[in-house]
# Entry
Amino acid sequence: MSLEQFKDRNVGTQEYRHIQASTSPKTPMEKFTQVVKRTFSKELFVGLKVVFTQMAKGPKTWHTVKYPQEKLPIGPRYRAIHKLLKLLESGNERCIGCGLCEKICIADCIRMDTRYDENQRKEVTEYSINLGRCIFCGYCAEVCPELAIVHGPRFENASEQRAHFVIKDDMLTPVDALKHQKEFPGFGALSDDADKKVKKTPLAY
Amino acid sequence: MSKEITVTIDGIECKAAEGEYILNIARANNIFIPAICYLTRCSPTLACRLCLVEADGKRVYSCNVKAKDGMEITTNNDEIAQERRAIMEVYDVNHPLQCGVCDKSGECELQNYTLYEQVDSQSYSIRDTLRQSKNWSSVLHYDPGLCIVCERCTTVCKDMIGEAAIKTTKRGGDALPKELKEEMPKDAYAMWNKLQKSIIAPLNGENTDCADCGECISVCPTGAIVSRDFQYKSNAWELEKVPATCSHCSTGCQINYERKHTSIENPDESIYRVTNEFHYVSLCGAGRFGYDFENRDVSKDEEAFDKAVQALQKAETIRFDSYITNEEALILQRIKEKTGARLVNPDAKRYQDFMKNYGSVSGKTLYAGDLKSAFESDFVISVGSFLRNDAPNSRYAFNNIQKLNKGAGLYFHPLKDELVESYGKNVIQFAHKPGLEAAALYLVLELFGKELPADIKAYLDGFKYETTETVTETVKEEIVENVEEIEKDEETGEEKTVIKEKKKLVPKKVEKEVTVTRNRLVEMLGGPDDFDEKLAKMLKKKENFTLFVGEDCIASENAAELAKLAAAVERYCDFNVVVIPSQTNTLGVSLLCELDEEASGYSVGYNVKGDFTLSATGEGDLDMPALNQQEGTFTNINKRVVPTNAGIGYGGYELNDLANALGVGEEQTVCFTEQLPVEKGFKALEFDALPNEYTNSMEENRGYLLALGECEAAELEKIELAQQGMEGNIAYRANPLQQFNQFTRRAHELEAQKALYCSVTYAEKNGLKDGDSVTCTVANEAFTLAVQTDNKIDGDIVYVPDFDETLDADRIFGGKRYSNISIVKG
# Structure
């Protein structure tokens, strides 16, 4: 396809079709008539009818959610404040400190401190996300090879400060809440047919 | 010089020197040939076999085949591609899939080549062997699971560093299935066969006994050998690389400071590690691990600054050392011109005087050689330098040419270095008495001198004498033996015994009296009896000669004579002489500053104790930036002005601010770079124009070379030789490995302490143990030190370090390197 026609920026020489908009009222009288017509047409009463019917039926049938006392359940693919998960069996942290989330983060809001621990493993001593910068794109969850970082459903994110942080303690599943930790079927999780996609490596055992 | 040849690689015509490896030619011409195990400047190991190419229709390994004129080389074809892919598959067999926590964090050559060969499936497998990770030393951690046995670590340790502290050993893996030999590509099979049998281990026992230079960490293509301190601290990609120059010794190696914020709580930057371009430069332990000596958390203290300005105004003397940049040296010189203060730097003064005397014979203001010519030479002599500790890179050159250039070497030093003789077969060590450096230089003149002045020649001939010696020779003698043989008559089939006479050559030892010419110089220096014979063997096919002159000569009482003798070696012998500057920028300071002999009156010290002290260690009256916080240039051993950058920020005042207050400053310190005096050989180039890199063709593209100046020269005059060296208990002023100055002392990874270092035999003889406290008296000054044995030296000379400013050994020794010492236990 040639791009010539798009490069021609001499407006008016192209074959544009003008769409005729409805004429707007010009005299004060015409304007007044339009307002009156719109105010007293049927639409107003359609709305009022719904309200009055619900009022008559009583609160039991009302669908209003009393936020913030009540919250609607949120879809698993929703990307709100991050959570750090633990292994269900042992309760150990899933995060291995590979730093991929830190690397991929396009808002550059993730930082982590790691060290060589007594068990000769990489230990993540601190982990922080600057929510003031986070754009909740979900790359961190998608790149995580251990499904350690996921997005949770907690979307209330108001703060008095621009630099609003969460640290590891805020995000990590507490020990007593481990039984409530849900496996995450959303962003970053393995697809259902992941097994089929894997090429098997031969083993000599 | 070797002649130029032309080869064609993948249709591209490349010019190269004869005798160059194909791989190096390709690299120099930006043609990519995969290779893991080859290290430039080291011998090829042929472990990975990835560098297969086709040269004139034959399959060869480009890392060990020298190019011939007119060669046609193809770097890839179907067969080679198959081999390479199979090799990478084999490397991936049983390699742990822990890239996420591997310390290499993506800088991995195994990963790169696996992706390059697009290995997305595995066709081979074998049972793994249990391999457990170990700590080899206080800095080295080895994980054999990640090791691909490319042998780069053992190669660099042997060929470059000269320690040979690690070796390949048996892995105990399963034998490969026999049928694979037929099925697999040939080279991949051979590579795997070798891989399956070997693993890396320290030479003796569980731990490495070496200089801990960490070059093995640097060359490791995977995360098998890592630094214990750095392990799991940071991913490589987070670190910002700052190209700089190592500030600890005069070699001025190119390094990268790698920095990142300190932690989540502390956003201030810290240096996490130092890396180097290991194909072009090898670091020592101080360079690699001595990086965090910065003057931290400094803010502008105006009160102290005002005091410093006043102090400088009234100072009669400014004391300083040579751990400063050229720019700072120039600022000090400008301050001198303004206030008339004396500049006192004993180290640079000694060097300045030495080079002045040197020039009076050589006719040049600077020595002719450099490390590059040293690495290219094939005969090297070192006089008066404790190479292993004083100048690690010069020692790498000493070792490297033994291994790569089939070189030979003579090492003159009173401290017997146990490693020197392991560098090669053709190395002779002279553990002479201190004070006989002149004899060593005379010997060099005698052996290599051409067109020597007549009186010198006569003087040198006076050392020769003839003597008769009884030599045992092996002579082949012909003897006649009667041998019984059974012969078969072919016709009758009868067997009968026949006695036959047979002539036979039998080796026989014969004692013989011969007249030989011996040299008393060799005997004075404690050389071997058969020195002449050995030397004759060593000199075969030698073309390029290098002489290292160390600090012993510069700091000697006879420095003037030694300088002239060293210059005579340059003048009359075909030698590249390198006078190793003792501190980082000794050469620069000696060129830039007019130095005074004696201090007097009120003094300001810069990194040296004075009445008012400016200090980059944070312990003076006004803080100054350390050398990893400064931009500037050094003049290094290669007579090259090399730029360094600030690895880390600094918040206080610097010398330029003081100069500004005195009216001689510039906007920035680096504005002085283009003002460096052209008449001394510097160039009027601005700092930002100075490159700091190596090119693919191994060219050192760093800063610029000093222009050599000429000066008046005269023939060498005869210098009477001191026949006697020093006697008695002798202490040597030298630093332990990895320590050079008060800054290396502050680096947290460098652990060597201020101590009395002695050989193991000395400790045994005197009933001393590591950690024993002894009172030492040198020149009527007593100080207490702990004893520390150094198993790499031998002999009765102990050494006392001067890197720790709490022990001013330089002053106690009166600027000399040797002094008599009395050591009392307790």
Notes: The radius of gyration of chain A is 28 Å. The first helix of chain A runs from residue 4 to 7.
